[in-house]
Amino acid sequence: MKRTLLLLLAAAVLGIWLSWVYINPYGGQILLSQLVLQLSGARGEFPLSPYLSGLLEFTLRLVPAFLFQAFVGIRLYQHYCTASVYVFSRIPNRIRWYAGQTAVIGLQALAYQLLLMLAALVTALLRWQVVWDAAGFLLFALHTLLYTLWLIMTAVLVNLLAIFQGSSAAFAWVTGGQLALLAPLSLLPLLDDAPLTQSLLVCLNPICRLILSWHTGQTRLLAPALAAPYRGLYPIHSVVLLLVLCAAVLAVGAQIIRRHDLIVSDMESGGK
């Protein structure tokens, strides 16, 4: 409970920080849709720049995700350290135990991301005049859902890797993997004459699903708000893709939890 409260407090503080640094309207007034797009990388009314400066700014926007991964990345792993024999002798059905643990991670991810967004919105309301547009409410929900799925997937990955590598190494691998996904996006400005290649580079990279300003709106409601510079990213496709990736990670995790031997050494100290 104490860790959960600290996590939620961190979400509120980081939401205020994101809002203060990255929400910058013109003339003191901003549409809710533009506000959400700025939280996912847009600058003013312009989509995220694929140049190095824009990608570095987007990396900073991922700091709340990195913090969540660090906090929740030991939820499963801690049971494999000092208490694994106790836990699994009392709970012989490991899959049921795993389902309960991942359900808690899911609830924590949703609460964390929702509180982060609400803190950012309240901070913006205190500073600027927010215009409530219908597309903004839909984008708010879409942003929250996409980032929640990303948090669940990456946090479970940290837990699973920690069983074999230790928590510090697992967090480093997952964080490094996310940064590695961003690196190829720096090639986009070099492909201005190859729009098809640009679109493929964006569509095949799962982290691009977190950049709402690169999506194309398929409905009359979202089309005016999402005028993407690249073709092929659609909101519903992004939701489905992250759901599939998240389900795949959870399924692999279930097999690892079911089959992996109980740990009898301290991975953190490099014991054998």
Describe this structure in words.
By secondary structure, the chain is mainly α. It has one domain (2-260). It has helices at residues 2-22, 32-39, 52-61, 63-72, 84-90, 94-127, 134-165, 167-182, 195-203, 235-259; strands at residues 29-31, 129-131. Strands 1-2 form a two-stranded parallel sheet. The protein is globular and about 60 Å long. The chain starts with a helix and ends in a 13-residue tail after the last helix. The model has no long low-confidence stretch (mean pLDDT 87).
Sequence of secondary-structure elements: HEHHHHHEHHHH
The amount of beta strand, in percent, is under 5%
Largest sheet: 2 strands, parallel
Total domains: 1
Count of β-strands:
2
Our count of helices gives 10
Rounded mean pLDDT score = 87
Please state the structural category: mainly alpha
What is the 3D form?
A: globular
